[in-house]
Amino acid sequence: xxxxxxxxxxxxxxDWLRGLYPFEPKRHMCGxxxxxxxxxxxxxxxxxxxxxxNPTWSFMYRELIPxxxxxxxxxxxxxxxxxxxxxxxxxxxxxLATHVANLESLVAALGLRRVHLVVHDWxxxxxxxxxxxxxxxxGRIALLNTAxxxxxxxxxxxxxxxxxxxxxxxxxxFNAFAxxxxxxxxxxxxxxxxxxxxxxxxxGSWANRVAIHRFVQDIPLSGAHPSMAALAxxxxxxxxxxxxxxxxxxxxxxxCFTKHFFNRWxxxxxxxxxxxxxxxxxxxxxxxxxxxxxxxNAFFGSPV
Length: 304
Prior knowledge:
This protein is an alpha/beta fold. Helices cover about 35% and strands about 20% of the residues. Residues about 1-5 have low confidence and may be disordered.
């Protein structure tokens, strides 16, 4: 059953964070794990679903949500289980298929009949994993430095985080993956200290970094990987959206989701309105939010 009240039992957010993230997250139970999500804007069975990746959380959409709401839209921004303000169980199946099932559960519980997507990083695989099964519900789609198809391309710095023992020590012990992400993902300007602190807020201990590590381990690089079937299903489903309105906004200086992925999206969805920002990094909404947020807002507000 959907719980629509603010999540009980969670300590209040500190004032410095509430100033940046002025939302009252709600809670939906996905089996034994509680999933935190922002639900902003007018009550409607139509909403923009904003999906983050690793190692971020709904905090990354903190400026886009008010813009979309001001234009009259409803926004749903979940934190995947293990991430952000959601529960972080230690013994949990942190696989792509599980995240897709959790999203399926949330959308059904909210009674949404029309869903527009904004996806970033792992949000692409999770969002299109859901969309492949519910194409009739899908409206407009905005892609931000993401993928929803298999690729052998993975940077060395991420491969290192997958190595036994060393990977766990770096990712969970020293929070190296999340800390590096707050520096390597912007190119135009560094993150403000408070913003960097906001991205890192949910990941203050070994236990709280469990899903960051599991997401890194869950990148399927071969057919034998447990999540390859779920990713292949999402990729097969992309053909269903060749007549949909699609916006691609892409940071061309992204070390992970490079221009190769941008070009692959144009092969899958050639009708896309595509914008490549050569000097912007992976955290596109941080590096180029002044350009990208108005573009996304206009995209969702324009007639079909």
